[in-house]
Design brief:
- By secondary structure, the chain is of the alpha/beta class.
- It folds into two domains: 2-139 and 338-379, Medium-chain alcohol dehydrogenases, catalytic domain (Quinone Oxidoreductase, Chain A, domain 1, Alpha-Beta Complex); 152-308, NAD(P)-binding Rossmann-like Domain (Rossmann fold).
- Helices cover 26% and strands 24% of the residues.
- The protein has helices at 40-46, 98-101, 150-170, 193-204, 220-227, 243-247, 260-265, 292-301, 314-330, 332-336, 348-352; strands spanning 2-6, 14-17, 28-38, 60-61, 65-73, 85-88, 91-92, 114-116, 120-121, 128-132, 136-139, 185-189, 208-213, 231-234, 252-255, 275-278, 305-308, 339-344, 361-365, 378-379.
- Helix 3 crosses helix 4 (193-204).
- The radius of gyration is 21 Å and the shape is globular.
- 45% of the residues are buried.
Length: 380
């Protein structure tokens, strides 16, 4: 079978031949890959950035934002059956820490986890994949055309879930999970795919959504945000220390830029009793100046919480699938427009190497999806 692979640490990606995997255990699930999304991690890997091949191998098959069709299952599998659409989660546990033993490898204590397509395990940019039932989440046929968005949405679901759990545990006026977001003001920093998916999820929960970026207000991403009821803020025109003066109390900040200087400066915009969740990972080691004492005073005196969030559990993947279905019901045209370009695996370089401001989510196609709801994005 075909697969897209790299030699980690070198700037290359090639279409290679790999043996087709087979069911070998009663809890195995085999899927045909239909679509695999491309994100910044993939582009970093193919340019020679951080990535680790499986032990004993030179190459790493890339890709972690997958969507597929079940072709075969082991004798004990009950979650899915052949013909179902589904996704696999990405991270695999270390096997020896409490979190991983409870299928929460996203909270691994040891750091000895692997991640498909990223760290020590082959990914999903290939024709067929076999994995365990515990990592599979079924996707309804009605949103098969959105299934490839499940993984990035799961990252946001975890980030929001972390914030909600924190507020439920400490604030006397927050009685339910709905109370933590309905009518609250959430600021999203960075309107890439993660940020826009966060906007959909937060709008579904009744939050007032502000989206911060540094692109023209008439460009595709700000316009999409506004179509679902969000407000766009051009960061070139508004200073972060003026955000609360202009927009009032900000209860939640979700950061999705990976720009360290911005990540620190946004603390100044966080409101009393607010939660700030960081998902962007800065690159490099360039030092920055921060008003450390002032920021620490603010965190203490305003009862603020700063939390980092990475990866997602299978439960967050299920939340992602559920919210994608809800978003498709409420904003079908808008949620469909997130996938802006689809490229055949035969021409994968067009998706990995070419990326401009008009792209939101670029997807590699491995096999066709039969779904009348699919958005007619450009395909190559």
């Amino acid at each position: 079978m075909k697969a897209i692979a790299i030699v980690p640490g070198t700037p290359n990606a090639q279409l290679v031949e790999r043996p087709e995997p087979a069911i070998s255990a009663p809890d195995d699930v085999k899927m045909e890959m239909l679509e695999v999304g491309i994100c910044g991690t993939d582009r970093e890997e193919v340019s020679g950035g951080r990535a680790d091949a499986p032990v004993g191998q030179k190459e790493l098959v890339i890709g972690h934002e997958m969507f597929g069709r079940v072709t075969e299952v082991g004798a004990q599998v009950t979650k899915v059956q052949p013909g179902d659409y589904a996704v696999f989660s990405v991270r695999r546990g270390c096997g020896h820490c409490p979190a991983c033993q409870m299928n929460r490898s996203d909270m691994c204590y040891s750091g000895d986890y692997t991640e498909r397509g990223i760290k020590g395990a082959d990914g999903f940019q290939t024709q067929f994949v076999v994995d365990k039932e515990q990592y599979v989440v079924k996707v309804p046929a009605t949103i098969a055309h959105l299934g490839v968005l499940a993984e990035p949405t799961s990252v946001i679901e975890k980030a929001i879930d972390e914030a909600v759990r924190i507020q439920l545990a400490r604030l006397p006026d927050i009685k339910t999970a709905d109370d933590a977001l309905r009518g609250k003001t959430a600021l999203i920093a960075g309107l890439g795919p993660i940020g826009l998916l966060a906007a959909f999820v937060l709008r579904l929960r009744g939050a007032r959504v502000l989206g911060l970026d540094i692109v023209d207000a008439t460009s595709a991403r700000p316009l999409l945000l506004q179509k679902i009821g969000g407000t766009y803020i051009d960061g070139r025109q508004v200073q972060t220390d003026a955000l609360d003066d202009q927009f009032g109390q900000i209860d939640l900040i979700l950061e999705a830029t990976g720009v360290a200087s911005l990540e620190f400066s946004l603390l100044d915009a966080l409101g009393i009793n607010g939660v700030y969740v960081i998902t962007g990972i800065p690159g490099g080691d360039r030092p920055i100046d921060i008003p450390g004492a002032a920021l620490m005073r603010q965190l203490v005196l305003y009862n603020q919480v700063l939390v980092g969030s990475v990866n997602a559990s299978p439960a967050h993947f299920q939340m992602a699938v559920d919210d994608l279905a809800r978003a498709f019901t409420q904003w079908p045209q808008e949620i469909n427009s997130l996938v802006t370009r689809r490229t055949s695996y035969r021409h994968f370089a067009q998706g990995l190497d070419h990326h401009d401001d008009s792209d939101i989510k670029v997807v590699i196609e491995w096999a066709p999806i039969t779904n009348s709801h699919r958005h007619t994005a450009a395909s190559h």
